[in-house]
């Protein structure tokens, strides 16, 4: 299968704007896994898959909340967390005083 910018991959019809994205996607279909985690020998089709896996195995939490200094492994988790610090989306548990989004508070209250 040819890998050219803007060309569709025949296996799934997916097209990518950059050649590197198409190559990464192609590796998934072909079962190629050139990236290896040296600690457990697990292999991955893309470097980003490897990096995500490595983060699961470390205690590194580089994304820090400026309001409470709580650390997170992923920026998306920090963004979700930061909503608890705004008054319009912060709901306090009457049992323990912790703050949550409205939907998270409902789930949390079931634990009491």
TrEMBL record:
SMART domains, A to Z: ZnF_C2H2
Determine if tRNA-binding is one of this entry's keywords: no
Compartments annotated for it: namely: Nucleus
Q: Which Gene3D superfamilies does the annotation name?
A: Classic Zinc Finger (3.30.160.60)
Q: Where is the chain membrane-spanning?
A: none
> Which keywords fit this entry according to its UniProt record?
Metal-binding, Nucleus, Repeat, Transcription, Transcription regulation, Zinc, Zinc-finger
Its principal location?
Answer: nucleus
**InterPro entries named among the record's database cross-references:** Znf_C2H2_sf, Znf_C2H2_type
SUPFAM superfamilies (UniProt xref): beta-beta-alpha zinc fingers (SSF57667)
Keyword Zinc in record: yes
Question: What protein family does this chain belong to?
Answer: Belongs to the krueppel C2H2-type zinc-finger protein family.
Name of the protein: ZN397 protein
- From which organism does this entry originate? Sylvia borin (Garden warbler)
């Amino acid at each position: 299968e040819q890998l050219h910018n803007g060309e569709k991959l025949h296996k799934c019809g997916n097209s990518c704007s950059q050649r590197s994205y198409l190559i990464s996607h192609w590796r998934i279909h072909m079962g190629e896994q050139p990236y290896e985690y040296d600690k457990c020998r697990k292999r991955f089709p893309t470097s980003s898959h490897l990096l995500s896996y490595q983060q699961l195995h470390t205690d590194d939490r580089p994304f820090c909340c400026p309001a409470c200094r709580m650390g997170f492994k992923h920026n998306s988790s920090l963004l979700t967390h930061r909503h608890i610090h705004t008054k319009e989306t912060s709901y306090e548990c009457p049992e323990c005083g912790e703050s949550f989004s409205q939907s998270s508070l409902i789930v949390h209250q079931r634990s009491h």
